[in-house]
Amino acid sequence: MSLFPEPFKIKVVEPIRLIGKKEREEELEKAGYNLFAIDADKIFIDFLTDSGTSAMSDRQWGALMTGDESYAGCRSFRNLEKSIKDIFGFNFFIPTHQGRAAEDVLFSNLVKPGNYVPNNTHFDTTRANVEANGGNAVDLVIDEARVIDSDYPFKGNMDTKKLENFIKSVGPENIPVGMTTITNNSMGGQPVSMKNIRQTSGIYKKYNIPFFIDACRYAENSYFIKIREEGYSNRSVKEIAREIFSCADGCTMSAKKDGLVNMGGFLAMNREDFFEKFKQKLILTEGFPTYGGLSGRDLEAVAVGLQEGLDEDYLRYRIAHTKYLADRLEEEGVPIIKPAGGHGVYVDARGFMDHIPPDQLPGQSLAVALYLEGGIRTSEIGSVMFAKKDENGNLIPSDLDLVRLAIPRRVYTLSHLDYVAKVFRKVRENKEKYQGLKFTYMPSALRHFTARFGRVKPVAAKA
Ligand code: F0G
């Protein structure tokens, strides 16, 4: 895939500034080495997330002015309805303020204590919403997903054998809903093939389990199907998206990703009985069913953003842009999850910072080094999030220590990506300078947001 230049030009700019190294060191200390605790204006390149960080187009900004703020039956709802019907094809939908609100409506209505919800890999909020209702969130991704340098084209796939065995073992009556997440964010932003979606759908159907797709990055996933799966190269991305959703009973959507907006989401479905139930919960927590958690202008921005997110020139650029960063990092000798994901590059921090033992948080250490060396903010996906403790209080590291470089949509240019690769080079050249970290405060849940860390002594001195 050759590099495809940005199919847009820049009309408005937002200045960013690289503060001095000494100031960055002070910011880190103040923040307890947790990048979530650093103010955004102290960040130069922000790769914390691709969610809600997109640049909107002139058409979206224009649409904002046409927002209808009527409490009930607003025109903006009808515009969004048209856009969603056109792409997703579901009969009913309710707007929500973001993806997790849609998850809350779905799971609080369907999941009872002791139930199970299978998925290829649950995202944190999906898992947390299943668990908040007493359910068990189960991940059944293919084994290949965990092989860092395997080039398998659809590493996000569900292991359909495991899925069917799982359903048989716990009984379909204990599974009120089955999911699959496209693309598979927690496993490197890797796509799921159409074949796999069909097989997954077939299994859920066979056991009479409603099938919902976590659709945040469905456009990137559809584009990967077009360029990687046999038989799809001549199909439009919109046709591919329609085919995906024709396999499901509904979807949860965070429009903050492929909807190209800063806030918004929805829950769509074919079953009227679900729709009637879900509306009641929506009214209680989000708002009247024709606005959900959003203002009329937000609904307009989502209606336009969903269509722009499927534009094939945009997607060609988007996937090539992410791959460009992956290629540049590989040139710098940085081990990454292969192939490049849709929305970001996931660095194998344990491999890159191989002088830092796993119990000294190599992922967090790399994230700190990238900020210190170049003002770049990334997120750790490793022991900070997942490690457990043994009976003596020692850390049992997670399987992998990754650092995610999530790329906001239509925001950074290639020279920003070149800059990031250069910062990685600096970190590599000065690697031994960067020591491991230890927790100084470990919250009990979702600890990556608020944990604090301190530096440990240099590894050499400890040995
Ligand atoms: N599902 C997936 C696969 C996600 O990646 C996210 C959010 C959500 C659901 C929840 O959506 O944030 O609108 O409530 N992912 C962001 C991220 C936060 O950084 O990966 P939300």
In terms of DSSP E residues, the strand content is 5-15%
Mean of residue pLDDT values: 95
- N- and C-termini, Cα separation: 46 Å
For the record, the CATH architecture of the largest domain stands as 3-Layer(aba) Sandwich
Biggest sheet strand line-up = 2-8-7-6-5
Count of beta strands = 16
| Hetero groups | ligand F0G
Count of structural domains: 2
CATH fold-level name of the largest domain: Aspartate Aminotransferase, domain 2
The H-level CATH homologous superfamily of the largest domain, spelled out, is Type I PLP-dependent aspartate aminotransferase-like (Major domain)
Shape: globular
Summarize the SSE layout with pairings.
Elements: H1 21-30, E1 45-46, H2 58-64, H3 75-88, E2 92-96, H4 99-110, E3 116-119, H5 124-132, E4 136-139, H6 160-170, E5 178-181, H7 194-206, E6 211-214, H8 218-228, H9 237-246, E7 250-254, E8 265-269, H10 272-285, H11 296-308, H12 312-331, E9 344-348, H13 349-352, H14 362-374, E10 376-377, E11 379-381, H15 383-386, E12 388-389, E13 395-396, E14 402-406, H16 414-429, E15 437-441, E16 452-455, H17 459-462
Helix pairs in contact: 1-14, 2-11, 3-11, 4-5, 4-10, 8-9, 8-12, 12-16, 14-16
The site of ligand F0G has 16 residues, from helix 4 and helix 5.
Provide a brief overview of the structure.
With 463 residues, the chain is an alpha/beta fold. The chain has helices at 21-30, 58-64, 75-88, 99-110, 124-132, 160-170, 194-206, 218-228, 237-246, 272-285, 296-308, 312-331, 349-352, 362-374, 383-386, 414-429, 459-462, and strands spanning 45-46, 92-96, 116-119, 136-139, 178-181, 211-214, 250-254, 265-269, 344-348, 376-377, 379-381, 388-389, 395-396, 402-406, 437-441, 452-455. It has 17 helices and 16 strands.
